[in-house]
Structure formats: structure tokens, C-alpha cells
């Protein structure tokens, strides 16, 4: 597409009816409040990235080194 045809496709004809993105039913919000709400709703509807599907490898975690050793013969020497 050429830049001229992109401009033409972005401009609406006067007889076309544009549906509003947001309609205020009650109250009198300021222009800033409407702009903030529009940004929030547009970003929520955008979807963004999907969930992260990386494989979690828990082999050799540092927390495993801090666990007690159960079931070894020397575990019961100094018990009660």
C-alpha cells in the first residue's frame, strides 16, 4: 500500500456511522477520566502475550541442600 492509500483508508466518509467505543450512561466524567478508562479497556482487550510455557527444572535446587536427611542410620543416635 502506498502512503496516500493508507491515508484514504483511515479517513471515514461523512455518511458512515461510527459506533462509539464507550458510552457514558450516568455522571459527568472529565476528559482525562474518559481517556484513562479508554486506555485501560483497550489494553485489557489487547490480550498481550500468552502464558509462559517454559519447562521448570527443579533438579539440584539450593533449597534441597537445607533439608534434613531422614532415614540414615546416624539420624537416630542423639534422639531422646
UniProtKB/TrEMBL annotation:
MF term (GO), any: acetyl-CoA carboxylase activity
Taxonomic superkingdom: Bacteria
Record InterPro entries: ACC_epsilon
One Pfam entry name: ACC_epsilon
Name of this chain's protein: Acyl-CoA carboxylase subunit epsilon
Organism: Gordonia iterans
Amino acid at each position: 500500500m502506498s502512503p496516500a492509500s493508507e491515508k484514504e483508508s483511515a479517513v471515514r466518509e461523512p455518511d458512515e456511522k461510527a459506533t462509539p467505543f464507550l458510552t457514558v450512561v450516568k455522571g459527568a466524567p472529565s476528559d482525562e477520566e474518559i481517556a484513562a478508562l479508554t486506555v485501560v479497556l483497550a489494553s485489557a482487550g489487547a490480550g498481550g502475550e500468552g502464558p509462559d510455557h517454559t519447562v521448570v527444572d527443579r533438579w539440584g535446587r539450593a533449597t534441597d541442600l537445607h533439608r534434613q536427611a531422614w532415614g540414615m542410620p546416624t539420624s537416630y543416635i542423639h534422639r531422646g
